[in-house]
From TrEMBL:
PROSITE patterns per record: TAT
UniProtKB keywords: Signal
PcRGLX/YetA-like central beta-sandwich domain: residues covered: 134-494
Annotated source species: Streptomyces corynorhini
UniProt protein name: Tat pathway signal sequence domain protein
Listed Pfam families: PcRGLX_1st (PF19501), PcRGLX_2nd (PF21345), PcRGLX_3rd (PF21346)
Residues annotated as transmembrane: none
InterPro entries linked: PcRGLX/YetA-like, PcRGLX/YetA_2nd, PcRGLX/YetA_3rd, PcRGLX_1st, TAT_signal
Domain PcRGLX/YetA-like N-terminal RIFT barrel, residue spans: 44-124
Keyword Signal (UniProt): yes
Span of the signal peptide: 1-27
Domain PcRGLX/YetA-like C-terminal alpha/alpha toroid as annotated: residue spans: 501-912
KW Amino-acid biosynthesis (keyword) present: no
Length: 914
């Protein structure tokens, strides 16, 4: 069944010409290359900021750099310097190795010493030491991190994740903890009777992952607890940089509650937040509230305001308060104000609630038990605030605040001895988090009935499978321990750092030249009109999807980062409510399209779009607990709704680029968790609904496909092996044994699947050849994984099997029959498979295959040469919001067009028809 609407006639590509060996062919590279040469300062890598503004107010930045095989041996040190030669302290660690032991990827961390630098150069050499090192010490109860400017004490048990944050002798914040509000029953209708319960995060483990000298990372794990009930696991990482006055928090929850469709009772999250207490020492008129609105906008107030009064304390006094500076002695004010200070209200409580992507409201009150006063509102708040006084205070921010609505910021008790700050990842003023399945099954109780449903709505439904149990979500927060109320300019910088954390990145030339990710991408090239036209089309598609996210409001806590699968031209609307045509859930590898687009261009907007997608698809679309842990969910109306739970969605191949570019530990966790995911085939047969013969999963004879199944397993194994993770030896062994036994099959990859032994990690070699080819098999990362593995592991039979698959998928049926005894049947996605023609051409030097790659790319299916790259304006009453559309665009074809265009240009770009 095709997931892609066919709107054009498929044209068979008939390309004449004998295969010839030509100079542009890529020679196969031996896995055991020459020994690493000595590190040399002649190998600099340029590093710059993705966006203008440099490091700004952020505590630091961590970035990854790839290296060509053999360039640097393990253990190489690296130095960083600015354009004018100033040394910048840097902390380095390896994140991947080539098989010869040389460094493949390294991660590098810089702190505030990098502020002011526009570009930097990374070379082998001795790193400069930071003037103020970050240090870590620990005992049985707590971990202490000192950046040289602030000191944080982190608990190893109990409810206080961050016991205290001090700057010098001043305690800026205490009692950093997690808050969860549970509602056990939904209000259905006008009679509201539901009660809330409050849970607090309880630590089960805390340990040091890095301890400086530039960067320290502390991980804290646990569950939320009230009484004897413990649920909603969390994993929090705290990041500290040498010389920084701030720290970063990465917060993950995994849903393990119960919500039964058809019932109003269950575990409904009413509020989810991070809370700190902020001690207050200054007089009420020297305490300040700052809350970010849109752009550079701020609410700028004092807890006790002395501006706008009937009596004027004096211009100098008023100006100082607005600036956040300490006021002169009240004895110097106009005494008509000084003697009446007790009659001026103090405003202790503030709330900014962002309940949709388009609107926030702001209100305040004097204290609990008294009425709220509207203080403003707007569209999209920055998710940032400050509370404190002239002797210090806490700035705080939540990234993607309006993107992942409903969110909220609370300040409570600022008129007392201490204020309480809560950053709500899920606002308690919103409706409770309702994750129940969206329909009652509609009588689809048997596989035949479910197949009928698939044939009409494209939804693969099965009772009990549309569960959110085990999905996760990660949020990013930032905190500053200020020694005084920040200036307006400093607050703008801090807020900007929350919205867009500064990211250092290697140049596109370095990323494309290192030969990583199979060498399947090359720098953007507009040197000839044919290439320029494809580059324009790639730009058009990226812009189209970026604009559609905004036009269609694809935002929300669980949704942000993903986009839709298919379009309904009659409603001028994406099919958000039609079965398997709704959320895309990584169908046909859009993650890879976007990351390859970034790697070859270095564009910040593509990086940020791909980053949001990676955060979403790796967390929300994948199970991290329960029976299906390690599997992802196929595209559907809800991200977890479809009953197809498969490796093709959870695959590490979609996470690898982001991990290696940023060294993000959470994404590293996700990939490591998949190392033993071959065990999932015991729990769930992905072909259970369409098998024609009886099958029961057998540990020593598991039916596993060589396409979407094995590519997911291979991606996890490769990542663990090259990272030298705890399961690296097992991962390498599984890679080699499965490659060997796939290559040994009578028909190689065309065999389709094999019986896998979990204990030996090998496929049984079939006695007879079989032709079992699907147009989906190679489109979920198999192309990319095979390119990497062939480059890394010398297994000629595996390479031969893959090259044969590449040669014959897009061949004529007669050619397929001549090679395999029968043709491959009715296939689709020829444009997407043109990159396999290109790969085989580049490996073999076959000019006919290179020509066929371009023929299939331009004139087979999907976005052919007849494609109209235009935009049709939309306005009411046809649509909810004005915008534009292109009826021809859908996400399957976009992802495959993007990958085919990028890889064909890289592999056979000099053979492009002109």
């Amino acid at each position: 069944m095709s997931p892609i609407p066919r709107r054009s006639v498929l044209k068979a590509a008939a390309v004449a010409g004998a295969a010839t060996q030509v100079s542009w062919a890529l020679a196969g590279r031996d896995a055991h290359a020459a020994a690493p040469r000595a590190a040399s300062a002649a190998d600099p890598v340029d590093v710059g900021w993705l966006e203008d503004g440099g490091l700004g107010a952020a505590p630091g930045s961590t970035f990854g750099v790839p290296w060509s095989r053999g360039t640097h041996p393990a253990g190489t040190e690296f130095a960083l310097a600015t354009e004018d030669g100033r040394a910048v302290p840097v902390q380095t660690w390896p994140t991947a190795y080539w098989p010869d032991g040389s460094l493949k990827w390294t991660a590098h961390a810089v702190g505030p010493a990098a502020a002011g630098a526009r570009r930097l150069t990374l070379t082998a050499g001795t790193p400069a030491a930071p003037a103020k090192k970050v240090t870590v010490s620990a005992n049985q109860r707590r971990i202490t991190v000192d950046t040289g400017v602030i000191r944080a004490v982190i608990g190893k048990d109990g409810a206080r994740l961050v016991e205290s944050v001090t700057r010098g002798a001043t305690r800026i914040a205490t009692d950093g903890r997690l808050v969860l509000l549970r509602q056990g029953e939904l209000d259905d209708g006008e009679h509201a009777t539901a009660r809330w319960e409050r849970f607090e995060g309880e630590i089960s483990a805390a340990h040091v992952e890095q301890d400086g000298p530039v960067r320290a990372v502390i991980r804290v794990d646990g569950k939320h607890r009230k009484g004897s009930r413990r649920w909603l696991p969390f994993s929090v990482r705290l990041y500290f940089y040498a010389g920084a006055e701030s720290f970063r928090m990465v917060h993950t929850i995994t849903y393990d509650g119960e919500q039964t469709p058809g019932r109003n009772k269950g575990d409904f999250i009413r509020g989810l937040g991070v809370r700190f207490t902020v001690p207050l020492r200054d007089a009420a008129y020297d305490r300040h509230i700052r809350i970010a609105g849109e752009g550079k906008g701020f609410l700028t107030e004092a807890v006790q305001g002395i501006t706008g009064l009937r009596r004027d304390p004096g211009a100098a006094v008023r100006t100082a308060q607005v600036r956040g500076e300490k006021l002169p002695d009240p004895a110097t004010w106009d005494q008509r104000v000084t003697t009446r200070l007790q009659a001026i209200p103090t405003w202790g409580d503030y709330t900014l609630a962002q309940l949709s992507s388009d609107g926030f409201s702001l209100r305040k009150r004097t204290k609990a038990g008294h009425g709220w006063i509207a203080a403003g509102g707007g569209g999209r708040a920055g998710g940032f605030g400050y509370v404190g006084g002239v002797s210090g205070g806490l700035s705080f921010g939540l990234r993607d605040f309006w993107h992942k609505h409903p969110a909220q910021l609370d300040i409570r008790g600022a008129a007392g001895d201490e204020a309480e700050v809560t950053l709500w990842l899920w606002s308690p003023e919103a409706q409770p988090m309702d994750l129940r399945f969206y329909h009652d099954g509609m009588g689809q109780d048997s596989y035949p009935e479910q197949i009928e449903g698939l044939n009409i709505t494209y939804e693969d439904y099965e009772p009990g499978f549309g569960t959110p149990y085990g999905i996760a979500r990660t949020s990013e927060l930032m905190f500053w321990a200020n020694d005084k109320t920040p200036t307006a300019a400093a607050l703008v910088d801090q807020s900007r750092a929350v919205r867009t954390p500064p990211q250092l990145a290697a140049s596109a030339e370095a990323l494309t030249g290192a030969g990583v990710f199979g060498g399947l991408f090359a720098p953007v090239d507009r040197s000839v009109p044919a290439k320029a036209a494809i580059e324009d089309q790639l730009d058009f598609l990226f812009t189209y999807y970026k604009d559609q996210v905004e036009q269609r409001r694809w935002y929300g806590f669980w949704d942000y980062g993903d986009f839709m699968h298919s379009y309904d031209e009659d409603r001028h609307q994406w099919r958000y409510d039609v079965g398997g045509y709704a959320w895309d859930n990584s169908e046909l590898s859009p993650d890879l399209w976007l990351w390859f687009a970034y790697l070859r261009s270095g564009r910040a907007d593509i990086f940020r779009f791909a980053e949001a997608l990676t955060r979403h698809t790796g967390e929300v679309d994948v199970y991290h607990l329960g029976t299906w842990a390690g599997l992802g969910t196929r595209h559907g109306v809800q991200h977890y709704a479809d009953s197809a739970k498969q490796q093709r969605i959870s695959t590490a191949v979609y996470r690898r680029p982001y991990y290696y570019l940023t060294a993000d530990e959470r994404v590293g966790d996700l990939m490591h968790a998949l190392v033993d995911s071959d065990e999932t085939f015991l729990a769930l047969d992905p072909l259970r609904k369409i098998r024609t013969e009886p099958y029961e999963p057998d540990r020593n004879a598991l039916s596993i496909g060589f396409g979407t199944d094995w590519s997911g397993l291979a991606a996890a194994w490769l990542t663990e092996w090259e990272r030298r993770g705890p399961r690296a030896a097992r991962a390498e062994a599984r890679l080699r044994s499965t490659m060997e036994t796939i290559g040994a099959q009578p028909n190689g990859f065309v065999q389709g699947s094999g019986l896998y032994d979990l204990d030996t990690g090998r496929f049984a070699v079939a006695a007879a050849p079989v032709v079992d080819v699907s147009h989906l098999s190679a489109m979920f990362g198999l192309v990319e994984m095979c390119a990497e593995l062939i480059d890394l592991i010398d297994q000629p039979k595996f390479k031969e099997a893959w090259l044969d698959y590449c040669r014959y998928f897009n061949a004529t049926k007669a050619e397929q029959s001549a090679r395999y005894g029968r043709d491959f049947g009715s296939l689709l996605l020829f444009q997407g498979h043109s990159r396999q023609d290109a790969y085989a051409a580049a490996q073999s030097g076959d000019a006919r295959l290179a020509a066929r790659a371009w023929s299939r790319f331009y004139d087979s299916d999907a976005y052919t040469s007849a494609m109209k790259w235009d935009r049709t304006p939309l306005e009411g009453p046809d649509v909810l919001e004005p915008g534009y559309e292109n009826l021809r665009i859908n996400s399957n074809e976009t992802a495959l067009f993007g990958l085919a265009a990028i890889q064909n240009l890289a592999l056979v770009g000099d053979r492009i028809p002109t």
